[in-house]
Every structure is written in C-alpha cells, then in structure tokens.
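Lecture 7 notes: from sequence to structure.

We start with a single chain of 423 residues. Read the sequence below before looking at the structure.
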Amino acid sequence: MVNPAYQGLVIWASFVAFIDNRQHTMNITGTSATYTEVARILHWLIAGLIVLNFVLHELAEEAVSDAAALALWANHKSVGMTVFMLAIIRLIWRLTHKVPELPATMASWQVKVSKVTHFLLYTLIFLVPLFGWLYSSASAYSVSWFNLFVFPDLVSQNESVAEVFEEMHENTAKAMFVLALLHIGAALKHALFDRDGVLSRMSSVVSVGLFVMAVVGGLMWLNVTPSATPAEAPAETAEPQPQAAIAPATSIPVDTTLPLWAIDYSQSSISFSAEQAGAPFTGTWPTWEGDIRFDPGNPDASTAEVRVDVTRAATGDENRDGTLASAEWFDSTSHPQVRFHTIAIRPEEGGRFSATGMLRIRNAEYPVLLTFNHTLEGGVEMITGTATLDRLALNLGTGDWADTSQVGQYVQVNFKVIRAEAP
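Now the structure, written as tokens:
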C-alpha cells in the first residue's frame, strides 16, 4: 500500500483546491488581486506532478518485482524532469508578470514567513529533480523522458558521488514535503479563518482541474505493471535448438598447425550496450578466457572458443548487475559461464571477416553471427568485432522483463582481443 501520509497529501491538497467554490473567469494578464491564468495553471500542474511523484516513489519502493520497480522508477524520473522543466517556465513567467500583493491585514511576521516559504519551495522544486538527475548520472543510469529522448549525463559514473547525490535528493524531497504541508495549512487558514481571498486568487476551475488530472490521470497512466508481451522479432531471429538435441559442451576440433594466441587480457575486453527504460547503458564482462587460433591467410582452419564468467557484470549499477545474474536473466548461480565457439570463419569484403558459431547460455545453444577486423600494426596483432543479439530469442529477460519498453530487445556486443606477442 501507498504510505498513508502521501494519500493524505493528495486528499488534503484536493480539498484545499475546492475550498473556494466561487467561479473564476479566465484571467490572462493578471491584476493586483489575482494571478494570471497561466501562473495558476503552472502552479497547480506542478503541484499535482509533485504529489504524483511522491506516490510513484512509494509504489516503486513497494513494487513486488524488479521489473515493476524499474518501470515505476523510470516514470518517477520522467515526471521529476517534467517538474524541473515546468519550474523553469514558471520562474520566467513570475519574473515577467505582475504578482498580486498580500492582504494588508496580514501581520508582518506572516508576510516574512510567506516570502521565505515561497522562496524555499521554489528552490526545492529545482533542487529535488536536479539532485535526482545528478544521482542518476553518477549511477550510470541516464534519465530518459518517457522513452522519447535522453537527458545528457551531468557527471561521470562514480559510486561515491552517486551516494552523496542520492542522500541530497532524498533530504531535499523530505524538506519539500514538510514545506508543502506548511503551505497547504497556510492556504486553509486564509480560506477558512481569514477569508481574505488569498486562496481564490491562485485557483480556478481550469487550474484545479489540471491538478486533479495530474494526480489521478498520472497514477492511471504511470502506475503500470510491465507487459510481458515482447516486440515482434525479425524473421531471421535465431531459435534455440530443442533441449533434447543439445549435446553437452565438448572441446571443438582445431587445426593444431595454427598456434594458440597468448591473449593480453589487460588490454582485451568484452563489452555490451543496451537500453534500460529508454536510456542507453554499457557494461563489461571483466572475467573471461579464450582459445584463439586465427590466421588471416587461412580462415578456414581458424577457430575460436570464448568462455565468459557471467556471475559478475560491470555496468556501473549494483542493482542492474545483480539483475543480470538473476534467474530471469543468466541464472549465473546455476550456470556461471556462457560459452561461444566458432563453426566457420570466412573472409568478407573490405578485409573484414565473419564468424558463425554457437552461443551456449544455460542449457541451450543458439546460432550467432559476428563480424570482425584483424589488424597488425606496430607489432600489435588485434581482433575487434561486434555482434547484435536479440535477448528475447536467447531467452534472456523472462517474465516481466520481456517488456521491451523497460529493457531493449537488442544488445550490441563488442569485443577486442589483443595478442600478447605477435609472430
């Protein structure tokens, strides 16, 4: 369940919005007694989105699955950035349009408290999403806006920095919550006891309606459970061999006339990139080993076998690394290794090579095609290549994770193999 405090905030704010039931006409230019209609709309829309985001935060914390939590966190970030952008517009509008004076009947201390509270609220409306943006950037988790575009990272990935920004994001959000309650309480005082029209000058049918739509409509739209229906796969997507037809992994025949490469693992790498909640991320498999016998002049006799330790991915985010090791993905507790071996290596146009082979993940094997270049420059012999894999065809990301709006269907794998000593 959502925290009752946040439920109370929604009900309380809605009550405040409708306390003054007088009808208001559209007011675009503003007067000494009222805010402009644009200011009202921005005020209530931002307020509704802030309430919505507090609720999305609670729902994400209580999500029953990692996939559901990811979807909710992605929406939480999108709404937060929407608040940030609207706050910029709101500030510009406030600086360029007349603001009504406070009632002359207000005590001087109340005027001072009102000004300080408004200043702090404006500051926090900017700081909360800004710290969230910085936290996501430092966590190697770029912020996507409803899967439409990605905001640039403000800082590079750094776990210690991420922890600092996470704490700042949480603390400023708590401060905003307290100030919002104070703000609502003051509005109620003006409406129920002072009856000085302070609330009515910032409320209208249109603006209050947007507040309700932002909260109720936002929850209906954004409080979603990931759909397990995958995107339609292309016709050439490889299908796994039937379980009964897969023999246990055995060593592959090699032409012993070709020497085994001594690999410089400190300079070699296997990396991958994909999309999470509409934002790109990259990672590496730090631990792997390969048996490479390759001669560019004799590709027919060349072979390769690579074994990757999938118990520990390195993507810059511990939660994401742990998810990749889970049963819905590589199930690395039971199957700690992924193995690829070539079946045929052929020369291609432009001096490139292609390799067809079998990729063994858990207890299934899948045909894979990759392309690579071979270079020998300055005494350094190197192979660099790439492959695009369909994770759904490889049975990676099952259950809720099959929703490709949360994790992209295709994964780009890049590899670099440097020979320790060229012949």
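The chain has two domains: 4-222, 250-418. Keep this in mind for problem set 3.
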